[in-house]
UniProtKB/TrEMBL annotation, chain A:
Coiled coil, from the record: none
Entry GO MF terms: catalytic activity
Pfam families in UniProt: Amidase (PF01425)
InterPro entries reported in the protein's UniProt record: Amidase, Amidase_dom, AS_sf
Domain of life per record: Bacteria
Protein name: Amidase
Amidase domain segment(s): 23-441
Automatic annotation (TrEMBL), chain B:
Source superkingdom: Bacteria
Full protein name: Uncharacterized protein
Amino acid sequence: MTEFLSLAEAARRIERRDLSPVELLDACLARIDAVDARLGSFVTLTRERALAEARAAEAAIMAGRYRGPLHGIPYNLKDIFETRGIRTTAQSKLLADNIPAADCDAQEKLSAAGGVLLGKAATWEFAHGGPSWDVLFPPCRNPWDLDKDPAGSSSGSGASIAAGLVLGSMGSDTGGSIRGPAAANGVAGLKPTYGRVSRRGVLPNCFTHDHAGPLAWTVEDVAILMNLVAGFDPRDPGSVELPVPDYTAALTGEVKGLTIGVPYRWIEEEVPASAPTRAALDAALDTFRALGATLRLVELPPLHRYEDAKKIIAMAELYAIHGPDLRKRPELFGASLRYRIIAGGLIRAEDYIQAMRLRTELARAMQAVFAEVDLIMLPSGEPAKTLQPQPPESLFTRIGYTTAFNVGGNPALSLCMGFNEEGMPFSLQIAGRLFDEATVLRAGDAYERVTPWRDRRPALVG
Amino acid sequence: MTATTEEELRLLAAKAGLGALPAAYQGELLSAYRHLEVMLARIAQDRPHGDEPAHVFNAATFARQG
């Protein structure tokens, strides 16, 4: 089997017994063997374990015990998701030998669904500092162009999916770390509502803004994964007990009647989108208009206010997590991460609380806008640029389009909306009301159905 | 807002347990703090008394943990 399959299509063939889980895994392993030494999307490959799981899945399915759409499907986990008996490093020398005793919530659920864990995906150090060349592993590269940045911090998740090495992945998003790599690698990635997907067993970046969520080739694939990982977890203090809809049932292809807000001031004045990105966005919005949606301007607080609140809170929380190691063995941190958190020790409690109060104000402002529109659409960012070290102060000066939805807590999806002249993906970001991932996914899926962007794969993998 | 002096920063760092950092990392700390204090200066300090911070504490969740 050499063709590329979405998770959904592979699942349909496996259910019909037209495709063997072992055959599917072999195809993924063959691609990994062919390209991943150059791509670097895996930091740990669990080949033998995966073969055993694929064989077990095949035997179960042939015996009539099909478990559902992840049964026999290869996936990976960002290497901050703890996995029992499998090294979980967070890409850091500090955790080079860390072998957890228990699985994270996501792994428990994906394993129970019959998935085939193929390994751990590259990230930035503790999902925050990067890209780095002085940490446990070199940075992952972008399969559309190996000289380009796959973005972070769920770099390996996005890159491995685009290259067809796995059919799904779990990442985390504190300021854009699912949506950025999804955008740079031309795949789909969802940051769910805060509290919708358990973070138990996911090494923290910033408790206040950490979200766990799926990445995959299509929005339909993301919906399948959301059906498996969403839900209340009493062992995650941020988890919310609310009914979880069937996300795949929500994919009707219909967007007629939806009202889409576009924050033009953000993308025209505060952080102007490049002309090609703006053209791609306008074309995507035209598509939604043609499908029957209504567009309108929305006004939100300035992006920099969301960034200030997020970064002050994050630095204080990061320092609380890493302060003991920073004091004892600062040389084991990569320079990028160390620079980004070291001043967190100097933040006064009053400043942290004031940032938390600002967060309340900004989150309320966002929900007020969602009282008037069903969705907000804007780019996820600009297409990937050359992979190179970033100035350490860029954390403090960079303003993006993704962080506001971490501060708001709202679900936000990145999906491919075309390619630039260099062949690098453009990405559309679709945000929705709190706990309304279903409408976000419905819109994303409707767009994918009428656009050709899922027909192209990186030349790296033919 | 008056920028924090290097002497004040050294005191803050010592309070944070970072007084013994190697010199190279102390330079990083001072450099990073210069960027941080710009953000801190933009955060309002004069909110109404009743403005709640956005901490997560849901008693129902903790009750379920047993």
